[in-house]
Design goal:
The protein is globular. The strands form 2 sheets. An 8-stranded mixed sheet has the order 3-4-2-1-5-6-7-8, with helices on both faces. The protein has 394 residues and is of the alpha/beta class. The chain has 2 domains: 2-192, Glycogen Phosphorylase B (Rossmann fold, 3-Layer(aba) Sandwich), CATH 3.40.50.2000; 206-380, Glycogen Phosphorylase B (Rossmann fold, 3-Layer(aba) Sandwich). It is 43% helix and 19% strand. It is built from 16 helices and 14 strands.
């Protein structure tokens, strides 16, 4: 069977968790005997179209405008044109290479036009992996005004994305219930968990030595450093732990709150926090292997229930998970029921601090929780199970 995957960011250039997840899915589908094609933009590419292979997966890259780490207006315009650029660049390839299934990933919300064209061309079913309930989260956080023309614009493309799907996979039961009640889409809906390949990297010490962190217990955050994560939540935790000389926080990534965090570190004199730019996937994996505790944060204002992909990388490396979520997020129940981490509601700074100290001072507790973190990955978030689940819709 031939399967086409559309995603706005892909390996090996990407540092995003979504790109890593989708490549792992593509490789697993390949392993299960299918031919896989990935369609993805390449903003810095000189050629209009470039077709290569990566680990046996055919990757069709089309030239587009920049869509990552740029101004919001420019990003919106360039993302709006993704379907147009993809079709105009790869039309002859699509016609010559029919596929049996289309899988597309959100973010972005702008694949709807392309998927609709491909469905008609190939008479193939489509599956939307819905991970970003945009523009809803931006409205919840006051970044977009409800009822505004901007909301109307994004809602139009969001609807096109949903309309193009035969099946929509959401990351949790609460997200599914919220989506079903709020969006009222006449679509097949199901819970499709995030996933990761269960391949750990051997721990080294290069980054500890380079950063002068020998003998420290390191709380590691890797990924988007943006508004949706409420990075000041982590900054407050670091400030509250300044007297704990064994504790250190390492934050790695890019996003629209990098400058905010940089300024806070300087102004508050946070010698226990290091902020690093985004790194390659290989470096990222090595950092996870070396450091001790996987850290995450979600903005309190979310009404949807996100499951950050970074947690899967923590699980692969048997890291105990420490974080805070928006109230009611069923991620808390999933992680704590498995004994894989300690989760509090964002805003409960005293509880977050208490959880952080438990992990800091009890090595056996940390180790046991890390082992259970790895077990949770095997039981619930394996890429093999996700691939089989999606193929049932053929």
């Amino acid at each position: 069977m031939r399967i086409c995957i559309a995603i706005d960011d892909y390996m090996p250039q990407s540092i995003k968790v979504g790109a890593k997840m989708m490549h792992e899915l593509a490789c697993e589908l390949k392993k299960q005997g299918h031919d896989v094609t990935v369609v993805t933009p390449a903003p810095k590419q000189k050629e209009k179209t470039k077709i290569t292979t990566l680990d046996g997966v055919t990757v069709c890259r089309f030239r587009s405008g920049e869509i990552k780490n740029i101004g919001k207006v420019k990003r919106a315009i360039n993302e709006t044109l993704l379907s147009y650029y993809a079709w105009s660049s790869l039309k002859s390839y699509f016609k010559a290479h029919p596929h049996d299934m289309i899988i597309y990933y959100s973010p972005t919300i702008f694949w709807g036009s392309l998927v609709a064209r491909l469905k008609k061309l190939w008479s193939a079913p489509s599956y939307l992996i819905l991970r970003d309930l945009f523009p809803q989260w931006a409205i919840d956080q006051g970044l977009i005004r409800e009822g505004s023309k901007i909301e109307t614009y994004f809602r139009y493309f969001e609807k096109k994305s949903y309309d193009a799907a035969d099946t929509i996979g959401l990351m949790s039961q609460k997200n599914l219930a919220w989506f079903n009640e709020t969006m009222r889409q006449d679509k097949a809906l199901e819970v499709l968990r995030n996933w990761a390949a269960n391949e750990a990297v051997e721990a080294g010490s290069a980054y500890r030595q380079e950063l002068g962190l020998e003998g420290k217990i390191v709380y590691f955050y890797g990924g988007n450093i943006g508004y949706a994560q409420d990075m000041m939540n982590i900054v407050r935790l670091a400030k509250n732990m300044q007297d704990e000389t064994k504790a250190h926080f390492v934050l790695v990534g890019a996003g629209d709150e990098v400058e905010l965090v940089e300024n806070a570190i300087k102004e508050q004199g946070l010698t226990n926090m290091t902020l690093l730019p985004a790194v390659s996937q290989e470096e990222f994996k090595q950092m996870q292997a070396e450091f001790d505790i996987g850290l995450f944060s979600l903005h309190r204002g979310h009404v949807t229930h996100n499951f950050p992909g970074k947690l899967l990388g923590y699980m692969v490396q048997s890291m105990p998970i420490l974080g805070s979520v928006n109230p009611g997020n069923d991620l808390k129940e999933t992680v704590e029921a498995a004994g894989a981490g300690l989760i509090s509601d964002n805003g409960e700074d005293a509880v977050l601090l208490e959880n952080a100290l438990k992990l800091l001072h009890d090595e056996d507790f940390r180790k046991t929780m890390g082992e259970k973190s790895r077990q949770l990955l095997s039981d619930t978030f394996s890429v093999e199970a996700v691939a089989r689940q999606m193929l049932k819709h053929i």
